[in-house]
Amino acid sequence: MANPRWAETSVPRSLPDKVAQLYYAHGLFCATYPFTVIVFAVSLVLVCSYPLLSLPLPGNLPQHYSAAVASNSSTLDAPRWLLSSSPSCYIQQVVMKSAVCPWNDDLKLTDAFRAPLAEVFPLLEAIQNYQEPNGSVTLGDVCMHVETAVSKAKKSSGVLPEYSCLVLSPANLWQLDSHRYRDDTNLINTIYTHQNLQKGKTSLAELLFGFSLKDTGIKRYPLRKRQRIIQFAITMVYLQHHKSYTDGLRERLMRLYPLHQAVDSSANSSLSPDYVHHVYYPGEFDYKEFVPLTITYLMLFFYIYFSVRKIELVHSKVGIALSAVFTVLASLLMSAGLCFFFGLDFTGSGRGREVFPYLVAVVGLENVLVLTKSVVSTPPHLDVKIRIAQGLMREGWSITKNLLTEVTILTVGLLTLVPAIQEFCIFVIVGLLCDFFLQTFFFSTVLGLDIRRREKIEPSQLFYHHYRYNPVRSSPMTRSHSVPRL
C-alpha cells in the first residue's frame, strides 16, 4: 500500500515549492556538467561584453546637433545634454582664402606664403574694431575673457591669449605684432615649431589656424615655386550668442572683402547663419575614476575571503573569493555591453553610471554569501550533486522573490518619464538579471567543484575521522574470586 503522505511531500503544490524544484533540477544539472556550464557562462559573458570594444576610450567622441537660432518647432528631437544645460560658449570662425595674384616668375618661393598670410593682421584689426551701428556692442562685450594659461601650456606663453578676449588666429604665433611677422625670415619653421606629429591630437598650430595644416596650403618642405592658396581662420569664442552683432560683423567683412562674394552667394545660402551647430564634449577619460572602484572591489575580495575562511568545507578560500569578484565584474561588463549594444547612452546619464558599479557589488555580495552558506550547511554525507541541488533549493525562492521585487520597483521608475531615471532603471534591471544568471550558473558551479575537490583530498572526513579515536585494545577476561570455580 502506497504511503498517503508521499503525494504531500513529493508533489509541489504551492509556487515556492515549484520554484524550489526548479532550482533543485538546475543544481543537479550544474553539478553533473560543471565544465560545460562554466564554458557556457564565460562564453556568454564575452559575447555580451564584446560591444564594449567599440567604446571610445580613453576619450569620448563629441556629439553633434544642429538647430535654428530662433525656432518655434518642438524640441523633442533635441538630445538630453542640450536640454539639461545651456551652452558653455559659442564659437564663430571667419575663414579667409588668399593668394598672390597674378603670380610672376620672378617671385621667390616664400612669397607664396608671406603675403597671403599677412592678411590675417588687417582682418583681425577689422574684427576687433567693429562696433554695432545702432548700439555700443563690441567684441569685448560678447567675447569670453580668459586669464593666464594653465601650467601645461606655459611653454606656449606669448602665443595663447592672456587677460583678454579668447580670439585665436595665426597672428598669435607672432604675438599679434605685424612687425615681428615681417622680420621673421623663416615663417614655415615658426609655424611648424608648434606642430605636433602625434595622430589623434590637435596641435597648437592647427588650433590657431582653425584647420589641419595639410588643409591650409602650407607644407613643411615646399619644393616648387608656384602660386599657392593659403587658408586660415580667425576663431572667436563668445559667452552668449548676440545675433545682431554677428550679422553686422558678417556684413561689415563682406563689404571689406567683396571679391567673389556674388559668385559664392549660392554657397552662402546653404550655410545660413540662422543655424547653430552644437558640439557636446562628454569629457576626457580619467583613469583616476577607477581608483575608488578598484578599492571597493579589493575590499569585496577580502571581505568574502575572511567570511569563507571560517567555513571548513570550503577548500580554496582565495578561489571562492576570486570567483565572487569575477561574478560581480562580469555582470557589470555584461550589462554595460548589452545596454551599449541596444543604444542606451549611459555615458551621459549623470551620477547613475557612477553609482551602478557599487550597487552591483553590494547586491552580488549578498547573494554570493547566501549561496555559499546554504550549500555548506547541507549534510556532509550527501553527494556533491545533491548538496548543490539542496543548497539552491533552500535559497532559490528567497533569491527569486527579492529579484522580482527589485525589478518591480525599478519598473515603476520607468513610468516617471524622466530620461535620466529611465536609463538608470534600465541599466540596473539588466545588471540584476546578469548578476542573477552568473550566480546561478557560474558561482554555484565553481562552489560545487571546490567542495568536490576537498572530498577527493580528504575522503576519510566524510563521516568520521578514524585517526581521532584511540584504538580499542583487547584484554583477557578476569574472574572474580567470589565466583566459585566450576
Summarize the structure.
One of its GO terms (biological process) is SREBP signaling pathway. The chain is mainly α.
Q: Overall mean pLDDT score?
A: 78
**Counting H and I runs of at least 4 residues, what is the number of helices?**
18
Low-confidence stretches: 1-9, 263-271, 462-470
- Determine the strand fraction and express it as a percent band: 5-15%
Described by strand count, sense and barrel closure, the largest sheet is: 3 strands, antiparallel
The domain count comes to 2
CATH architecture of the largest domain: Up-down Bundle
Determine the CATH superfamily of the largest domain: Multidrug efflux transporter AcrB transmembrane domain
Distance between the termini: 56 Å
Q: Which of globular, elongated, flat, extended, rod-shaped describes the shape?
A: elongated
Strand order in the largest sheet: 2-6-5
> In angstroms, what is the radius of gyration?
37 Å
The counted number of beta strands is 7
List the secondary-structure elements in sequence, H or E: HHHEHEHHHEEEHHHHEHHEHHHHH
State the CATH class of the largest domain: Mainly Alpha
Which secondary-structure class do the elements indicate?
Answer: mainly alpha
What do we call the CATH topology of the largest domain?
Answer: Multidrug efflux transporter AcrB transmembrane fold
Question: What is the helix fraction of residues, given as a range?
Answer: 40-55%
Pfam families: SCAP_N, Sterol-sensing
InterPro entries: HMGCR/SNAP/NPC1-like_SSD, SCAP, SCAP_N, SSD
Main location: endoplasmic reticulum
Organism: Graphocephala atropunctata
